[in-house]
Amino acid sequence: MTGFDPLDAEIVAMLRTDGRRPTVEIARRLGVAEGTVRKRIDRLVRERVIQIGAWADPLKVGYHFYTNIELEVDVARVEAIADRVAKLPEIFFMGISTGRFGIFAVGCFRSTEHFHEFMTQRLARVPGIQRAVTSNITRIVKREHAFPILPAASSNGHRRAARTRSDSPR
Asked: Domain for residue 167, yes or no?
């Protein structure tokens, strides 16, 4: 990545509240040229720093529960196993982790029958999985896709503070 500075952080913060916000409006509120905003957004998307799209709530579009899935796997095959499990459409989060379980995943399921079929038919066929431990989420307390963005480090290693919303030009 070519850098992530306070202006990038402000642009991302504005897009998080409305991913369809026009670049002209972002530029006006931040006091910069519209072309600057457009080019920065293009770079952030191209470098996969951000993604812009709609994120449907699975529980409102036909899925009935989330399940955490911890997989104990053959360590020598963890990357291949993770790649294969990540391709299963029910899995929306996957990470290779430390500790007893080499893979942590989260999936959404339409019913207990759907979950059963997933576990006993498709997941069970992935070579190298030694053990799966699952836990169903019974109530969502917080579900966010946004998190605080840390200001970029300056060339001397100190953090530069991004302007706060109240400091931003209107």
From this structure: no
Q: What is the pTM for the complete model shown? A: 0.72
Q: Are residues 130 and 71 in the same domain?
A: yes
Q: What is the CATH number of the domain that holds 125?
A: 3.30.70.920
96 burial (CB, 10 Å; 0-12 / 13-18 / 19+) is: middle
Helix (H, G, I), strand (E, B) or coil at 12: helix
Asked if residue 149 belongs to a domain, the reply is no
By three-state DSSP, how is residue 67 classified?
A: strand
Q: How many domains does the chain have?
A: 2
Q: What SS3 class is residue 78? A: helix
- Neighbouring residues of 71: CB distance < 8 A, sequence distance ≥ 6: 81, 85, 101, 102, 103, 104, 105, 129, 131, 132
Tokens representing 38 are: 């457009």
Query: Tell me: the pLDDT tens digits for 52-79?
Result: 888 888 888 999 999 999 999 999 999 9
How many other C-beta atoms lie within 10 A of the C-beta of residue 149?
15
Q: Is residue 147 part of a domain?
A: no
Residue 160, domain member (yes or no): no
How far is it, in rounded angstroms, from Cα 48 to Cα 50?
Answer: 5
Look up the domain containing 89 and give its range: 58-137
Task: Give 3-state DSSP helix, strand, coil % of the chain, rounded to 5.
Answer: 40, 20, 40
